Fold this sequence. Notes:
Oligomer: single chain
Helix content: over 70%
Strand content: under 5%
Order of helices and strands: HHEHHEEHHHHHHH
Amino acid sequence: MPDAVAKRPSAAExxxxxxxxxxxxxxxxxxxxxxxxxxxxxxxxxxxxxxxxFLRLESEELLALHPKRxxxxxxxxxxxxxxxxxxxxxxxxxxxxRIARTGLAAVHLDRMRELLRRQRALAAAADVGGFAxxxxxxxxxxxxxxxxxxxxxFYATLGDRQRRMSVSALGPRPERLSxxxxxxxxxxxxxxxxxxxxxxxxxxAHLTATHxxxxxxxx
Length: 219
């Protein structure tokens, strides 16, 4: 019992986790107003830990706090999407080049195949929020599979932005989810074949079809 109590998340952590997931999943889109009382009621805690959670989310540029009014979900800033896409292309292409030289380890291959199976199920359910999370995990796994730990850690910092971008792009067209899973399978095939050039070309087409040109980040 003591171990179970020790592992239980704090009230502030629970409030932070719930609020962040509401933002990243798109349930609270940019511009939404949310109050401490609303989150406190959902997590069943006092407002003090919620205030702490909101301050943490403000530092991550996900919330803007307004005294006596509550908090507003910060929309994705203009130009940020293009910046994220540019970094993703560079990091994932570099990862593919290293994988072409060293090979794709079985543990990473199995992980990506499992993520593909999950994506198929989420696509069938038209679960955009869940798919966006699995999409981010798949692309992060590509970079981690390269063995470049610095690249892997940096890529992970883009995760929140990637999820918000995917939810925004795919929310109006959930029918694209199954096509994305197909494109991921193609990307994985190029990694298995050690064809970094084909991977890079397929990745560019994949991102452009979902988010628009990486030069503008619009679509």
